[in-house]
Amino acid sequence: MASAQLPEGFKASYEDGVLTVTDGDNEVTKKMEHALIEVEVSDDEVIFTALTSKRNVESITGTFKSHVENMVEGLEEAHVYELSGVYAHFPMTIKQQGDEIHLQNFMGERKDRVIDVMEGVEVEVDGDDLKLTGNDKDAVAQTAARIEQACHKGDRDPRSFQDGVYITKRGKKQ
């Protein structure tokens, strides 16, 4: 059994395998469903109970607890990832168009590399730098990872071809 405490002013609800944590203004939702784990929400606590004593199932209760702690942290202070674009020869342009990020002229390519931004993530583009902000840590981190992986260079030697967009800093909004 594992439990996650909710700070004062926070509320949680669990319905159809989806846990929602809210601080009154913002909310973060996450699917937390497992056949052998029971989820209960009390006034200020979310309790995860394993229905078997197998270690691999009990470890998932710890994972669920960590997810709830990340949801609370994100509502208290938003998660921030900073990325920086690097190029050697072909000047790359990073643009935001709606819910997409376009990498133009990457490695001299004519076709844009397009990355979808996950829901709840705010993007700020400042020249070659990107700043991703959001309450949901998983969404912010997944968007940053998608941007970094969109710069895959195929069979080229990564020691020579270092063009790309890389995560330079991650933490909380100050």
From TrEMBL:
Record's GO cellular component terms: ribosome
Keywords attached to this entry: Ribonucleoprotein, Ribosomal protein
SUPFAM superfamilies per record: Ribosomal protein L6 (SSF56053)
Location of the Large ribosomal subunit protein uL6 alpha-beta domain: 90-164
Residue spans of biased composition, Basic and acidic residues class: 150-160
InterPro entries from the UniProt entry: Ribosomal_uL6-like (IPR000702), Ribosomal_uL6-like_a/b-dom_sf (IPR036789), Ribosomal_uL6_a/b-dom (IPR020040)
Region (Disordered): 150-174
Gene3D superfamilies, per the entry: Ribosomal protein L6, alpha-beta domain
Protein name as annotated: Ribosomal protein L6P
Natural source organism: Candidatus Nanohalococcus occultus
